[in-house]
Amino acid sequence: MTEKNKTLFEFKDIHVRVEEKAVVAGVSLSIKPGETHAIMGPNGSGKSSLSNALMGHPAYEITRGEIYLNGHNLKDMSADERSRAGLFLAFQYPLAIPGVTVANFLRTALQSHRGKEADMSDFRKLLKTEMKALAVDEAFATRYLNDGFSGGEKKRIEILQMAILNPKMAILDETDSGLDIDALKTVSDGINRFHNENNGILLVTHYQRMLNYVKPDFVHVMMNGKIVKSGGPDLALKLEDLGYEWVNEEANHKAGV
Amino acid sequence: MSESLDKQKKDLSRLNSDYATKYGFRDPVDYFHKGAKGLSHELVEMISRMKNEPPWMTERRHEALDIYLAKPMPQWANTRLLNEIDYENIYYFMKPVDQQSTSWDDVPEYIKKTFDRLGIPEAERTFLGGVTAQYESEVVYHSMREDLKKQGIIFLDMDGGLREHEDIVKKFFGTVIPSTDNKFAALNTCVWSGGSFIYVPPGIEVKVPLQAYFRINAENMGQFERTLIIADKGSRVHYIEGCTAPVYSTDSLHSAVVELIALEGAYIRYTTIQNWARNIFNLVTKRATAHKNATVEWVDGNLGSRLSMKYPCIQLIGEGARGEILSVAFAGQDQHQDTGAKVIHAAPNTSSRVTSKSISKDNGRASYRGLAKVHKHATGSKISVECDALLIGRDARSDTYPTMEIDCEQVRVEHEARVSKVAEEQLFYLTSRGLTEDDARLLIVNGFMEPFTKELPLEYAVELNRLIELEMEGSVG
Fold first, then answer.
1. Is the dihedral of CA B433, B436, B441, B445 positive or negative?
2. Which residue in A72, B151, B253, B390 is a FRET match for B279, CA 20 to 30 A apart?
3. CB contact under 8 A, A117 and B447
């Protein structure tokens, strides 16, 4: 088996419960190094719940299923352990941490990953390069993390964090929401810069528009906590034209309802 | 803070591990003079005679004792804890040495060691302009840089101030906080000993901070230092005060009175980091008067103690005077920090800003008690009050008791109070980036305190973060 055919990230039969309510009901996916997958679906389909559960949010209980990253089982790991194992989640709604500067936070996070103090001048260089690439003003380094940031600024900072932590597998939860067309392009460029043949991307999105910039290899449609259809990039375009109802009908038809 | 967490941690491991070893040690001491327990006119007379005070001060002490005895205990804040103090079982006056020293070499070895362990001589060497070190009731070490002396700056312990500058002391002593103000101000006035006396001549800027460090060593000790700072017209001074005590099974009492007077156009900043052992009752009266175009800033950090009652006050009595009170209180297990701020606008176009931050952890309780008062003729005045409480754990408690007495229509008043918890969502966000839950919680707390920490000299900011980290150890969300 060549490197290429190895699985990078895989989850099997994931069931998620939030406050006694089942929100994800048996989802499986396998991602190889270098691949980009997109999970699309209407609001309330369980996409964000799946993302949070995969990252290890304590409120999202995985009642059944397994998660593997590079062959390591993540299921019993806490969020920080999953992060250090190489998983990343770009948040749909990034939280503000008043009093903690972007630079201080990033350096602390980087150190948590490396297990040692990051060299100050190396870190500054890295930060400067990545900020420039994402068209983030340098002044943001000394601003408090997400405190008073616009929606678009928050999303850029999420991608900045990804670029700096350089995870093996990145889940991007609705990263396109709240972005105008210019910001969408910049953020997409950032994702494409990050992406290489060794890492994987899972885009979770409601709309097709980001997929014009970040090209998926596979598209999956999620409804009512399940993946109901999978296909190539064309599937996204078809969804854009026909809406999610179309998949729903087809799924119902197949099920003989 | 630009310091990263790891840097802070490194400082930590290099420094020490907890209050008991860093501050909580105690010295076996042969006291030069140890009065009897309890309070009496005889004791007051004895203190005054030992200090060889002028009759008016002796008189002031006796008068204050009568006021103290006549005044009832406060019927507010935490009356249960206040009544736990056994006032008969306290040493009101303890003199560890016969004479004050101006060189650390002359300070008795055990006391010098204490202050060495607290890092005072090192701080003096590196960045302070003058230091007063008080041990129990008396100042044991005092020194000031020669160049500051030459500028006419007076920095003495309060006893020395009274001896050498009686005229100034007589003119200002008790004018900002009279004995009648409250029971504990009266108590302080009758048995006061030590504290700092500072006078800055007109137009002089004291470019380096002056510092005092107050140390309680004995069990059942009452420390009643008295501080008086006068900044004459157009002068500037920054004074820093730190306090600690050993860990004993029975309680000690710290009841200071601090009076600041900023004359026309003067500037005073008073920075305190109090880190008392958990059985100290800390009942302190701090008040400043700001004259025309003068500025007073209280930067006040309260850690430790069983109960703290402290409400730094600024009276803005001259047109254009400014006041700022920035405070942080940390209430851990079984602690009550009843702290706050008072601003009194008694002249036109005065402005004040209060920023109060509190952290309550475990069953700790932090209360903000504030007063904002604007007199009728204080037109064009501005007040802004911001209270921010952070709760850690389900049993933590925070209360806010703001009082606004606005007797003037042409003023701008802003008041904001927020209570927040270290939210699960914030913790998840940070842990998803690889920080452990403990590190994430600490980062949130440090961020919460940042508006306060950034106002401190770097050495103190590092120390404060270190103390907070110790307080946060083993906490559960």
1. negative
2. B390
3. no
Q: Please give the residue range of the domain that contains residue A52.
A: 3-94+167-255
Q: Which of A58, A108, A144 sits opposite B428 (nearest CB)?
A: A58
The reply to whether residue A111 touches residue B4, judged by beta carbons under 8 angstroms, is: yes
Q: Do A112 and B443 touch (CB under 8 A)?
A: no
Kindly state whether residue A187 falls inside one of the protein's structural domains.
yes
The CA-CA-CA angle for residues B167, B170, B176, to 5°, reads 135
Chain B nearest-CA distance from A218, in A, is 26
Q: What is the pLDDT of residues B50-104, one digit of tens each?
A: 999 999 999 999 999 999 999 999 998 888 998 888 888 888 988 877 778 888 8
Q: Is B6 on the interface with A (CB under 8 A)?
A: yes
Sign of CA dihedral B42, B48, B51, B52: negative
Task: Assess if residue A162 is contained within a domain.
Answer: no
On the 0-12 / 13-18 / 19+ scale of CB atoms within 10 A, A15 is: middle
How far is C-alpha B323 from the chain's CA centre?
17
Task: Give per-residue pLDDT as tens, B103-133.
Answer: 888 888 877 887 787 777 777 777 777 888 8
Angle between helices A234-242 and A244-255 (to 10 degrees): 100
The answer as to whether A220 is a domain residue is yes
Query: What is d(CA B306, CA B311) in angstroms, rounded to the nearest whole number?
Result: 16
Count of structural domains within chain A: 1
CATH for A173: 3.40.50.300
- A122 found inside a domain: no
Which residues in chain B have Cβ-Cβ distances shorter than 8 Å to A56?
A: 431-432
